[in-house]
Amino acid sequence: MRFLKNTCANMESSSRASEATKDCTNTDCCDDCVQLENRLRLASEHYLTLIVQRDRENWSGNRDISALDHAIRQARRRRNAAGRLLLYHRINHEILSRPNACAAGQS
Fold first, then answer.
1. Which of 27, 60, 87, 91 is deepest in the core (most CB within 10 A)?
2. Using one digit for the tens of pLDDT, what is the confidence trace for 37-72?
3. Which of 80, 58, 81 minimizes the C-alpha distance to 69?
4. CA end-to-end span of the chain, whole Å?
5. 20 near 60, Cβ under 8 Å?
């Protein structure tokens, strides 16, 4: 259990560090970026919470954790979908920030 607490603390501190050093110079930050980042963060936190809950129940001897396994699979899918949406959005920012793309769009 101690390992699990340390892992969660490490993940949380690295998440905060990445938010603190977030840089929007390469891509224009917009409201959609912020919304998608928040959606990914919340989905990741929910996924981690379910994993911790399943591990606690497993440690306590409760072997009927199939409902949690299903919820974890759904949470993983939602987290992955949120990550893909953010990635695609950032790719679009990158494409639109290129000088050739901007010039082609104006002509």
1. 27
2. 999 999 999 999 999 999 888 888 877 778 899 999
3. 58
4. 61
5. no
DSSP string, 14-83: HHHHHHHT---SSS---HHHHHHHHHHHHHHHHHHHHHHHHHHHHHTT----HHHHHHHHHHHHHHHHHH
Q: What is the pLDDT of residue 85?
A: 95
Q: Are 36 and 86 in contact (CB under 8 A)?
A: yes
Tokens of 28: 């224009």
- Assigned token pair, 98: 């290129």
